[in-house]
Write a structure and sequence with these properties.
The protein has six helices and 19 strands. The protein has 283 residues and is an alpha+beta fold. A hairpin with a 4-residue loop joins strand 7 and strand 8.
Length: 283
């Protein structure tokens, strides 16, 4: 199983989640063993941010990474798409402090990556395999992992809302299954929280074009849902992206209940510190 990169470059532009400003990101090919690296363009020039659990600086409504000088936010959908399509090496050039939210799912990111094309490199794929069971449970949120020759997610969510309630979805993540079952699932939020979030400088880019918005009775978006259980599917999309912060593809079976970005990152930070829990493999 060789490493992969892109065959060409492709640009995505759109509104950012929090600031509500126009931002852009450009995907570019990268050599073997580069990994996924963000190139953040700003007043200080261009700074590179690589993936590592400790690089996560903020997890409020989205995942943000930083080196203490620059940061880039809302990266989980991008990372999820790259991991799901088995793209190991890529430069992501970001202008603005966030990547574009696009339609709130991974659909347009997948389309962009397909447009660029995916090519194999002359180097074996380097992964990390879970070697022992481990779990983290805090405040009603839990993640448990066990050894598995693939990437499997069994995810359950519970929300006290008539449209959501309890939802569960189980899937082995492959490029094909991600495209069919996960990529089109959009992020969601509650209308009653919108004013409070915007007063804090958050979610200013959210609209019915890029978020499933729920009022007390149901879905406010004119087109309704793409899946009846779109909410749990999107949580899986986010989870894949947050686990990509390991820096390498991971092999394991995950059972997740009511988790979010903060708990995802806390779990990953503890997993990498657990002696003998992960082993390097080449495929």
């Amino acid at each position: 199983m060789p490493q992969k990169t892109l065959n060409g470059s492709v640009i995505c532009t759109g509104v950012s989640l929090h600031a509500g400003t126009q931002v852009s990101m450009e995907f570019k090919p990268a050599p073997a063993d580069t990994g996924i690296v963000f190139h953040v363009h700003g007043d200080e020039g261009v700074r590179q941010l690589a993936l590592h659990p400790e690089a996560v600086s903020t997890t409020e409504l989205a995942t943000t990474i930083s080196d203490g000088v620059v940061s880039v936010s809302t990266i989980e959908h991008v990372l999820s798409s790259l991991r799901a399509l088995d793209i190991d090496n890529v430069e992501i050039h970001v202008v603005g402090c966030e990547v574009p939210l696009l339609d709130g799912s991974a659909k347009l990111i997948i389309e962009a990556l397909d447009k660029a094309g995916i090519v194999e490199l002359d180097a074996p794929r380097k992964m990390q395999r879970v070697t022992r069971e481990y779990s983290l449970e805090q405040n009603g949120k839990s993640i448990a992992v066990a050894p598995y020759e693939g990437f499997r997610v069994d995810y359950t969510i519970r929300f006290p809302h008539p449209v959501i309630g309890e939802q569960r979805f189980v899937l082995d993540i492959t490029p094909e299954s991600f495209r069919e079952h996960i990529a089109n699932a959009r992020t969601f939020g509650f209308f009653r929280e919108a004013e409070y979030l915007r007063s804090r400088g958050l979610a200013r880019g959210c609209s019915l074009d890029n978020v499933i918005v729920l009022d007390d009775n149901g879905v406010m978006n004119e087109g309704g849902l793409r899946f009846s259980d779109e909410f749990v599917r999107h949580k899986i999309l986010d989870f894949i992206g947050d686990m990509a912060m390991l820096g390498k593809p991971m092999l394991g079976s995950f059972t997740v209940t009511c988790s979010g970005h903060a708990h995802n990152n806390a779990f990953l930070r503890q997993l990498v510190q657990l002696e003998g829990a992960l082993e390097d493999v080449e495929r």
